[in-house]
Amino acid sequence: RCPRPSEAIFGILRELGGPGGRSVSLPQALQVLGARGFTPGQVSEALAEYEGLNVLQVNPSRSRVTFV
């Protein structure tokens, strides 16, 4: 099945974090996600969704995503 864009984005962020990865650079992630066809709006929606679920946090300067 084809995952929702937010699910696919979250999966890619986890991949970028590597095994045991706790965080990922947001600019790097945006570059990779853009190359895979995701729009900035889709990424923002996914980040907001998963922040609301307390699965990840984006720092105030929006430079890093940390997995909770």
UniProtKB/TrEMBL annotation:
Organism domain of life: Eukaryota
Q: Could you identify this protein by its name?
A: MCM7 factor
Task: Name its species.
Answer: Hippolais icterina
